[in-house]
User: Which sequence fits this backbone?
């Protein structure tokens, strides 16, 4: 099927009654997509309906982004929460709706560990711990299983039922923690130390965090939706397989999915 010249072929029939800002958006978007005639028309019709209903301005796509259930959680929105064992504090980045320290479906946090000691009891939860700063930590679970975290973005996975003792390798470390209720959610986590492009899997919730540099959220047809500063957490909900692409480096990508009973 031939490629479509937007101005000569589609604009009079599909865009004629749209606002000027919407028309300009579609001129830009269609040249970039390079779709066939039929796919362009169907996508334009859908988006024009959405744009007209929401009264978009040509420079304000915030409500368009919200339709993808996207939220950027910035450091000023993080919360400092005392450890259950009373020996320190955790920076809580996100927690499930109505969640508390004693009862939640999932929780994402960052903590510093400055001395050897036993981890808090989180019976009933799976824990995934990622080294994000420092020279490493050795985790001993129930006096027999050992996890050695020495490389930045290395991951340990263990049960919150275990008696876990942390032994520092050489000074204070910072770790990134993901905890999920064993009966309700599972977490799949990938980390990327190099600059890369990652197609996102389907999930109820997806979180992305970068240690050092900003990263970018794209639709899979290369339309950039957002850039996110390092240290902020991007939250996406109910995403489909390969619907979005993330580009950046030193990334933590988390997929949270409900367990089927």
Assistant:
């Amino acid at each position: 099927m031939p490629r479509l010249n937007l101005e000569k072929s589609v604009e009079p029939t599909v865009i004629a009654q749209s606002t000027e800002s919407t028309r300009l958006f579609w001129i830009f978007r269609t040249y970039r997509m390079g779709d066939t005639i039929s796919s362009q028309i169907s996508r334009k019709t859908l988006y024009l309906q959405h744009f007209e209903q929401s009264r978009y301005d040509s420079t304000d796509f915030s409500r368009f982004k919200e339709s993808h259930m996207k939220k950027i959680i910035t450091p000023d929105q993080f919360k400092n929460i005392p450890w259950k064992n009373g020996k320190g504090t955790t920076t809580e980045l996100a927690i499930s709706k109505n969640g508390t320290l004693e009862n939640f479906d999932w929780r994402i946090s960052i903590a510093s560990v400055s001395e050897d000691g036993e981890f808090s009891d989180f019976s009933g939860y799976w824990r995934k711990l990622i080294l994000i700063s420092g020279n490493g930590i050795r985790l001993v679970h129930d006096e027999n299983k050992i996890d050695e975290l020495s490389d930045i973005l290395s991951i340990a996975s263990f049960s919150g039922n275990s008696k876990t003792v942390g032994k520092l390798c050489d000074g204070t470390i910072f770790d990134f923690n993901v905890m999920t209720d064993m009966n309700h959610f599972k977490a799949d986590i990938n980390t990327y130390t190099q600059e890369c492009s990652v197609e996102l899997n389907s999930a109820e919730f997806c979180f992305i965090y970068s240690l050092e540099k900003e990263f970018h959220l794209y639709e899979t047809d290369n339309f950039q939706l957002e850039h996110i500063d390092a240290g902020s957490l991007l939250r996406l909900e109910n995403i489909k397989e390969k619907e979005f692409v993330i580009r950046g480096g030193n990334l933590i990508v988390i997929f949270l999915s409900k367990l089927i009973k």
